[in-house]
User: Fold this.
Amino acid sequence: MDTGFIIEKFILVVVIFAISLVIAMYSTYAERKVAAFLQDRLGPDRAGPFGILQPLADGVKMFMKEEIIPTTSNRWLFIVGPGLALLCACIGTAVIPWGTPVLIAGKTVSLQVTDINVGVLYIFGVVSLGVYGVMIGGWASNNKYSLLSAIRAASQNISYEIAMGLSIIALLLMTNTLSLKEIVAQQHGLNWNVWYQPLGFLIFMVCSFAETNRAPFDLPECETELIGGYHTEYSSMKLGFYLFAEYINMFVSSAVMATLYFGGYNYPGMDWIAAHWGPTWAPLFGTAIFFGKIVFFIFFFMWVRWTIPRFRYDQLMNLGWKGLIPLAIANIIITGIVIAIIEKF
Amino acid sequence: MESLSNKKKVLEQKPLSFMERMYLPAIVKGMGITISHLFKKEATVRYPEVEREFSTNFRGMHSLKRDENGKERCTACGLCALSCPAEAITMIAAERKPEEKHLYREEKYAATYEINMLRCIFCGLCEEACPKEAIYLDGPIVPADYLRKDFIYGKDKLVEAPLEMKK
Assistant:
């Protein structure tokens, strides 16, 4: 392995890491702004023009807050919990193809940190690890509310992971690959998977709402009943980490949704752009399109949050086990039959 | 029992239909409603910069009035303090000296007059009790401050500006 390769990947990792942190940071701002606009309010507008510095102010506030570690808590796990949550949220971005290879200074750079051939499985693995951050934090707090909500979170995430995995299987039947790079490459132009797998996309989207603990599935952190849920005992930047991890999760699942179903960096007319704009700007434009899709999905997450009330716990389980899982299995069967018929004739 | 008002509404709890159990149509409808609010005018008034217009009988900060010659009307009779349900008003009376005739309308005046704005409930009873029409709650909203002692307003803040200064 030559040094140039390592430096190239290192720069890419740092850039992607920085971008995902900045996007998560501004998601907190966007969340408050979107909430305000949907409720005919203004939202934060004091820090800087249009409140653009609000996330910085929030960050400073989080750092300045007194840090409390409960005496009865398991001190080591209490500290590991938020770190694990943030780590698992961040490493999901490694396999996402951000764009086609781009020509920079006479060198073709791949805009994907690593193209492992089981990219989809990697994402799923990382997402399932994320629940440990919540579980450990809730358990180490030594608080009934935290423990209850951590158990809620774990059972919710495990239930919805099944439906999510099943909805992906139907997609994999079509794509015949687990590599995210190839899945995106197959969706050239407007040949997006969502046209072939609308039901699968719907199931995947609902499940990713549950996986990121977003409304209407935000039972693990419901403010009113569980006073913040698993992070009741957390303060200062540890609380900030948990809140931040949720937004990074949102960013990653938006990216995954855009990659798997909405063609990633593909867009109609990309061949014309590629022919006219050259090998540097055309891929970067594709990346910009990809980020546009991600931003739309993040907005969609927020839009849903400020529309739908929270599910009751039994409704949540009913929907997951009796609704989405049978639906996902039916989707697999239908997809399989259709593929078999197409191959036969 | 028969309803007397005819306003009773019998609610039937039917099991959800298939479409209702799918949640999606209702969700789409709800999201249509919220997105329509994205384009509506916000109801917020940006307070310190923009002030909403108050009704004419709004009761704000007190002001101690002067008469047409610029003399203070208050005679320190204490009726406002007596009427105050929150006991926010205190005053110390003093006798007017001959050379102070241009300052105070009557022989007795309030040497100090203090209203604790944290106690005041802005009921307007002092205004009603005053026989000399000396106190009115016609000012703006009492501004916020950091220390409790800064909310005790003395004559320096309460007495209205002299006539020539007003012009």
Strands of chain A lie at 102-104, 107-109. Chain A has twelve helices and two strands. Chain A touches chain B through 14 residues (CB under 8 Å).
